[in-house]
Design a protein that fits this description.
Blueprint (H helix, E strand, L loop, with lengths): L2 H10 L9 E5 L3 H12 L3 E5 L3 H23 L3 H13 L1 E4 L10 E4 L5 H14 L5 E4 L6 H4 L9 E6 L8 E6 L5 H13 L3 E6 L6 H17 L5 H11 L6 H8 L1 H15 L8 H8 L17
Parallel strand pairs: 1-2, 1-4, 2-3, 4-5, 5-6, 7-8
Antiparallel strand pairs: 6-7
Length: 306
C-alpha cells in the first residue's frame, strides 16, 4: 500500500469527521488537473468537469505523465509497482463536459477563471444541484471567498482551498475560513488537505490570504526596481536566489505564474486594501496587452521555447 492510500484510509476511518471519498474538480486547466491528480493518487475517486473537451484531453495526458514521474520517485526502478500505481491512480479519474455529472461528490472544488461573476454563477448552480452533505470550495488566489459564495445557502459547508502551482509538487495548502463556515467543515477540509499530502495553514478571508499578500509586495517592488533601471532582471533574480535563499527569482516566478495572473492579483488587492504597494505597474500592463504572459505564451520577462 502506498503512503497516499494509507493516509486516505486512516482518514476515512475517523468517526469524528465525514470522510471525503469522492471529489469533483470544476476546471480542467493546470490547477484543476493538479488537484485531481493528488486526490486520485490519495485513493479518492475524482471527476474533472470542463466545458472544453480539448482541455479535458490535455488534462488526462498531463496527469498520466505526472503520475509516472511520481511513481518513479516512489518506487525507483520497480517497473511493476510504478505501472500499478499509475494505472490505479489514473483509473480513479473520470472526465465530463456536463456539470451534472460531477455534483454527486463529497467535495467539489472550483478551479475556473479568476472572474467573480463566473465563480458566483457556478457556485449558485452547485448549491442547487449538489447533495446537502457536499462541501463546496474555491481555489481562488485573490478574490474574496465570502463574495464568491454570497448567493449560496450552504455557507456553513463552504470555504477556500488555495493550492499552489504545480499542485503535485508544491506542499502547501491554504484553508480559507469564510464568515459562516462550521467547525466540522473546517476540520474536514484540513484533514482532507493532509490526506492528499499537503501541509495546511489557515487564514481568514483577507485579500491575498497569507502567501499572495506577502508575495505581492515582493514581486511588485522587484518589477519596479527593474522598471526604474536600478538593476537588471537577471541580477535581481540571482540576488534573491543567492542572497535570500529563494528557489526562484521574482521574474522567473512571475513568468511561471503568468503576468496576467500577477496583474489581476495586484489589482484585486489594491482595490481591497488601497495599499499603494499593490498599485498597477505600467510595465506589467504593457506586457499583458502585448501578450507577453510568461512561459504559457512563450515570452514574458524571459523567452521560452514553446
Amino acid at each position: 500500500m502506498n503512503k497516499f492510500v494509507a493516509l486516505t484510509r486512516k482518514f476515512s476511518s475517523s468517526s469524528s469527521l465525514n470522510a471525503i471519498k469522492t471529489v469533483t474538480v470544476v476546471g480542467g486547466g493546470l490547477m484543476g488537473s493538479g488537484i485531481a491528480q493528488v486526490a486520485a493518487q490519495a485513493g479518492q475517486n475524482v471527476t474533472i468537469v470542463d466545458i472544453k473537451p480539448e482541455l479535458l484531453d490535455k488534462a488526462q495526458k498531463s496527469i498520466q505523465y505526472n503520475l509516472t514521474r511520481v511513481g518513479k520517485k516512489m518506487y525507483k526502478d520497480d517497473l511493476a509497482k510504478i505501472e500499478n500505481f499509475v494505472k490505479e491512480s489514473y483509473n480513479r479519474i473520470q472526465v465530463s463536459t456536463k456539470l451534472e455529472d460531477g455534483v454527486n461528490a463529497d467535495l467539489i472544488i472550483e478551479a475556473i477563471v479568476e472572474k467573480l461573476d463566473f465563480k458566483q454563477e457556478l457556485f449558485n448552480k452547485l448549491d442547487q444541484l449538489a447533495p446537502e452533505h457536499t462541501i463546496l470550495a474555491t481555489n481562488t488566489s485573490s478574490i474574496s471567498i465570502n463574495e464568491i459564495g454570497a448567493g449560496i445557502k450552504r455557507k456553513d459547508r463552504y470555504g477556500g482551498l488555495h493550492f499552489f502551482n504545480p499542485v503535485p509538487v508544491m506542499r502547501l495548502l491554504e484553508v480559507i475560513k469564510g464568515d459562516h463556515i462550521s467547525d466540522a467543515t473546517y476540520q474536514t477540509m484540513m484533514e482532507w488537505g493532509k490526506s492528499v499530502g499537503k501541509t495546511c495553514i489557515t487564514c481568514k478571508d483577507t485579500p491575498g490570504f497569507v502567501v499572495n499578500r506577502l508575495l505581492g509586495p515582493y514581486s511588485a517592488e522587484a518589477i519596479r526596481l527593474y522598471e526604474r533601471g536600478d538593476a537588471s532582471k537577471e541580477d535581481i533574480d540571482i540576488g534573491m536566489k543567492l542572497g535570500a535563499g529563494y528557489p526562484m527569482g521574482p521574474f522567473e516566478l512571475a513568468d511561471y505564474t503568468g503576468l496576467d495572473t500577477n496583474k489581476f492579483a495586484l489589482q484585486v488587492m489594491y482595490e481591497k486594501t488601497n495599499n499603494p504597494v499593490f498599485k498597477p505597474i505600467p510595465l506589467v500592463d504593457k506586457m499583458v496587452v502585448e501578450g507577453k504572459l510568461g512561459i504559457k505564451s512563450g515570452e514574458g520577462f524571459y523567452k521560452y521555447k514553446k
